[in-house]
Design brief:
Elements (H helix, E strand, L loop, with lengths): L1 H4 L5 E5 L7 H18 L2 E5 L3 H7 L2 E6 L2 E7 H6 L4 H7 L20 E13 L9 E14 L4 E5 L6 H8 L6 E6 L2 E2 L8 H6 E4 L3 H4 L6 H12 L5 H14 L8 H8 L8 H13 L5 E5 L7 H18 L2 E5 L3 H7 L2 E6 L2 E7 H6 L4 H10 L1
Parallel strand pairs: 1-2, 7-12, 7-13, 10-11, 11-12
Antiparallel strand pairs: 3-4, 5-6, 5-8, 8-9, 13-14
Helix pairs in contact: 2-16, 9-10, 9-12, 10-12, 12-13
Bound molecules: adenosine-5'-diphosphate and magnesium ion.
The site of magnesium ion has 2 residues, from helix 6.
């Protein structure tokens, strides 16, 4: 931004300037831009998929679809009275809450339970000591949380706060100290003893473009878990499971038999972002897990697709009683999905509780900042 502003331009082109930033930083950058705009009379052409941003920052808005401008006008008019169907769909893309609100019975054990969880990374020590000894960076400290059967625990926090580390530990992929139990069973030290647990906890990552191998076909990607957890299946039996998993997530439902056969042999690059994320979900579901760890599952998707993928996740949770450990920086997504929420900052859980309590009456200063910035 400093580089762009050095010559005091009349017009600043800002192409998704804050998309990769967490909410508190985003607020600071926008305040900075607004201040400069006022001071220097600079015009800003801001390109973004974030409607909240448009509402907050812009005076006029242009809506584009497939290379065409389908609508333009004063922001307040367009948001209040959208004329074009695509604009309406965009404005209507705010995720809707549609989850089972049942409170778990008191005696019901948590599906995933952490007590005093601590995860550290081994890092080189500074200076010459680093030649001989390694130090430790503690990324998660003293974390307590429960994920109940059929419910979603939302994890919020800015980038670097330890959310993904928490997720990897829950998946049994990082060494930790403290207690971490999945369906009452602790992760063991040997990978053989963990095999049955690995089946119970599956994962969907943020970016479906890099999380699915470009060299494997859809059949291989989705069926891979069966090779490990049900090695006795024949290839034909496996194919039946793969086909069912694809239909369960809404991929290929509109195809006839011959086209569907071709679908299995396609590669990830032949699918859109939303479809790829459905493939990633099918890949996780095929081994019939109890818990899905969702690390920013819709952050790489645009808002209309995001809404569809969230609806899919909600339906799967209702139908199968799945539990989700849902990591996201998007407060709208938390509002739509979570039953319980934990807020992380610098490796610590600073606030936790039922979603409506944390979101509507936050107690910790940091939670208040996060929520205010997301508005
Ligand atoms: P988040 O997902 O909330 O953005 P992460 O869990 O990825 O946060 O990271 C938490 C902290 O741990 C960060 O400070 C990050 O730099 C550090 N960290 C993450 N992975 C490693 C690693 N493999 N080695 C050392 N430090 C790491
Ligand atoms: Mg992360």
């Amino acid at each position: 931004i400093a580089m762009a502003l050095a010559c005091q331009p009349k017009l600043l082109l800002a192409d998704e300037p804050t998309t990769a930033l967490d909410v508190t930083l985003r607020g600071q950058i926008l305040d900075l831009l607004a201040g400069l705009q006022k001071k220097n009379g600079m015009a800003v052409l801001m390109i973004t998929h974030d409607l909240n941003l448009v509402r907050r920052f812009a005076d006029r808005v242009i809506v584009m679809e497939n290379g065409h401008i389908v609508e333009q006008g004063v922001v307040s008019d367009v948001f209040a009275h959208p004329q074009h169907s695509y604009t309406r769909r965009l404005i209507d893309s705010k995720p809707v809450r549609d989850v089972t609100e049942r409170a778990p019975a008191a005696a019901e054990p948590a599906v995933l339970q952490a007590r005093a969880l601590r995860v550290g990374y081994s890092i080189p020590r500074p200076g010459f000591k680093g030649w001989f000894k390694r130090g430790e960076f503690v990324a998660v400290q003293g974390a307590d949380f429960d994920v109940q059967a059929g419910q979603t625990l939302g994890v919020m926090g800015e980038s670097g706060s330890g959310k993904s580390t928490l997720a990897l530990a829950a998946l049994g992929l990082l060494p930790f100290s403290g207690e971490l139990q999945v369906t009452g069973q602790a992760w063991g030290l040997s990978s053989a003893s963990n095999k049955s647990l690995r089946r119970v906890v599956q994962v969907v990552f943020q970016d479906p473009f890099s999380s699915l191998s470009p060299r494997l076909t859809v059949e291989e990607i989705v069926g891979e878990g069966l090779l490990v957890h049900e090695p006795a299946l024949t290839q034909a039996e496996r194919r039946v499971h793969v086909a069912q998993a694809l239909l369960d997530v809404g991929v290929g439902v509109d195809l006839d038999q011959a086209q569907f056969g071709g679908l299995l042999q396609r590669y990830p690059h032949e699918f859109s972002g939303g479809q790829r994320q459905r493939l990633a979900i099918a890949r996780a579901l095929i081994v019939k897990p109890r818990v899905l760890v969702l690390d920013e599952p819709t952050s790489a998707l645009d808002v209309t697709i995001q809404k569809q993928v969230l609806q899919l996740l909600q339906r799967l949770q209702r139908e199968r009683g799945l539990s989700y450990l849902l990591i996201t920086h998007d407060v709208d997504v938390i509002r739509a999905m979570a039953h319980q929420v934990v807020v992380m900052k610098d490796g610590y859980i600073v606030e936790s509780g039922p979603a409506d309590r944390v979101l509507d009456a936050p107690e910790h200063e940091y939670t208040k900042t996060l929520l205010a910035a997301a508005d």
